[in-house]
Amino acid sequence: MGQGRASKRRARAASGFAAGLAASGALRWYARLAPCLALGAALGAPAAAYAQEAARAYDIPAGTLEEVLARFGHEAGILLSFRPELTTGLRSEGLHGSYGVDDGLAALLGGSGLRATRQANGSYTLARPAPATVGLAAPLPQVTVTSRAEQDSAPYAGGQLARGGSLGILGTDGVLDVPFSTTNYTSKLLQDQQARSLADVVINDASVRMLTSTGGFGETYQIRGYNLTSGDVGVNGLFGLASGSRMPAVIVERVEVLKGPGTLMNGISPEGSIGGSINIVTKRAGDEPLTRLTTTWQSDNQPGMQADLGRRFGDDRAWGIRVNTAYRDGEGSIAGGHQKVGAGTLALDYRGAQLRWSLDAYAQHEDSRNFRPQVGFLSTVTAIPAAPAADFNFFPDNRLHLDDKAAVTRLEYDLGQRITAYGAIGYRDSTTRQNLPVGSVDNAGAGTTYNGYYDTYSKTVTADTGLRMQLDGAGVQHTISVGLTRLQQEAGNGYTEAATSNGYSIYTQTPLTPITAQRATPRKASDMTLDSVTLTDAMSMLDGHLRLFLGARRQGVRYDSYDTVTGALQSSYDASAISPLWGVVIKPDDNFSLYANYTAGLTRGTVVPTGMVNAGQILAPYRSRQIESGLKVDWGKLSTNVSVFEIRNPSAAITVLTDSPQTTSYGYDGEQRNRGLELSAYGELTSRLRLMASATFYDGRLTRTENHANDGRNAPGVPKHTFNLAADWDAPWLPGLAFNARMVHTSAVYFNAANTLSLPGWTRWDIGARYTSRISGKPLVLRLNVENLFNRNYWLLDNPYATVAAPRTVLLSAQVDF
Questions:
Q1: Which of 94, 397, 559, 676 gives 60 a disulfide partner, CB atoms 3.0 to 4.6 angstroms apart?
Q2: Worst-scoring range by mean pLDDT, 184-188, 203-207, 328-332?
Q3: With respect to CATH, is domain 49-78+80-127 assigned 3.30.420.40?
């Protein structure tokens, strides 16, 4: 007990020290000292606290019985299974002191009427013994089989974020136990915020920003100041399966965000993102039957419907099926717009004692007329023109047709108690047909537009296989992983431009120049192969209070570029590199950790955007590097995180000869170095109030530019600071009624490397409410959300183009479980 309190005091002292450093802005000194502080704290703890015994020390705070049991199971390393309704309304005073597993469970369940029973495989089930009944056998309770990975992914206090998530080849682990900054969003958050696509989820973190607008032709994200395209989103840990435009939220159970280069954990992403990675975890059938119908409505007038069905069957409910569908059809959020969106998913899975298998398939279709356009700025611009009204379309009658289909299957088999083999393979087929005008404007918002058809296709095969084993020796527990990945992708496009251009203004509507030429059929533009071999060792020692992560991934990139008119091979490169990783986690106390990491990786080159003379070209591969340090504290129901980082990466720049797409090119110019400080807190402040708060402070600079012309200038598109604050509150006067509000702020960003042009900062306010009740005995949830409450007009920069953010949008839904 005394040792636990002393450890907590050390945690609070270190946390306060880091906060002081953050307040003083001494990022570089904290980055150097944090690992030393962590080591000192660990060495200062009594060695007896780390002795490996049958009984171990626990310091689990009071909370709901479900939360306390979940934490006990995680810390004790056991599988604990029970139906959620068994613990509904029950609380626990926690567990403090030294206990064996059986004694600890008995202490936690004392007075609850529940009993834990050890199974033959070493797991535990929880049940309420039935009273004796003459002549009748008591029915056996239904149980939920929970794996260690599921325990690490269990919801944290408040239910909006999870306790951990997956890290590719490193497996699934808790937030406090890994040397990285991660955020893991739950299905509860997706439902309560009425997320329509992945963009609506990841914007909850200050280190993640959207660079494109809702209702546009696609989604581009920014993590730690670097771009990440929708095509670089992972699906169940595999790249290449996500839509290149946007991922519908209907398929998503959880969203896992890893900040910083994740090359070693996941391999090279197909479109070269390096600031972080996003992984979608698809839905699975739960132990309880699910039949859910949700009606939706989005302003101005877009009704929709969603259906969600899940069942488990067979012995021990080993087999599962989950089906989700969504359909919306109506007005878009732009004048004269119309959007038709449909998506469907199928998830099958089998969970046995040794064998686990899954199959996921999804398809989405979208037809949009008058989607939100993008615009560039002429080289003569001296001030960025004011953003037009968000619901105004200055490129009338643009169109988007999107089709995506993908399937992935995964198999895991336990070769023994401590060794698992796994393998996964997936395929995706995608096509888009776009009427996509491009153009740049002057100070007054006037310019010349070039109308055209831009159609694309891609076919991707991706695979991942490996072994994960656990070994013990000399007081060290090793988790060794060996893995192979391979991604093959063929992509093509066809571009047909109107014979003439015409003038336009972003403040008036001018018809586009008709395209009289025959629409070009997309032809192969590239063949790409990404492969890797990885070896990692995650070591745990001193009873888990010290963890070391070492690894290396040998990566290869082969890329062939073709002329889409003649079919001739234009260029080819074949490069390889070894990406190292080292990380350390020091936990002076179970609820406090300090960490540091270094990682480097080979990244596929940037894809040149449309509107450039070299559009579609993939630039040469490059190496990125990150160093990061931070601390994490779990206060029981509130988790706080502080981290500092530095990422180095080649900088992309625009070369303009004259102001037209025919003479504007895109390439590398020097290096971009992003340094930053991240602060975050999430969880429950009170039993009625849930909180998510975060802030990121950036120092993004250009270095090694041509002739040193822009050395030391601010990196284009990287803000100085970003803030997020969100609260969710249960009203005391009416059970089931809750209100929420969110503020999202981003400071101004520079448009060009010379720092002569900037786009103003912006602040967005969202509000919402929900009411949970029953109708005819069936659970009912009514939700209302209003995004961009004050209808602000502001630019979002996806360099070299800008998009106006979406206008005020009202979302309504009614969810019924049958």
A1: 94
A2: 328-332
A3: no
